[in-house]
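DM from R.C. (forwarded with permission)

"hey, sorry to bug you on a friday — could you get me a structure for this? deadline for the figure draft is monday and I only need the backbone to look sensible"
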Amino acid sequence: MVNPSARRGAADVTQIRIRLVAIADGLEQRQDALAAAGGAIGEEVLDEVDRAQRVSEIRFTIALESAVSEARVQIAHALDILDEGGYGVCEDCGAQIGKARLAFRPESTRCLPCQSAADRQSGLDYGVLR
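My reply, with the result:
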């Protein structure tokens, strides 16, 4: 006989996987849209104001592409951890990651204190939850 809690756990894992894959697919579509927009930005520039606007748009697009790429890497990492059976456990300290945090950021692989410490160490301490 199958343990009901094990069945529920498998269903939860499936739902988590579906959600992470859907987020990854959405990010891929955004990355494709950004790439298409990047080509349009490089069109002919008529004056200094247009040039300044285009430079600003290019820099913003590059920053967005970087953020999308980083998010896709984090989702792939979370899927790997899910496959290994460690989803919901902080990869740094081993503590349980809060349910609210996982509901908000299902790609989280660290508890909030460890993520904050990692962000500070990498220079990304800008108050955004990961």
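R.C.: lifesaver. The radius of gyration is 19 Å.
me: no worries. The chain has two domains: 1-86, 88-130.
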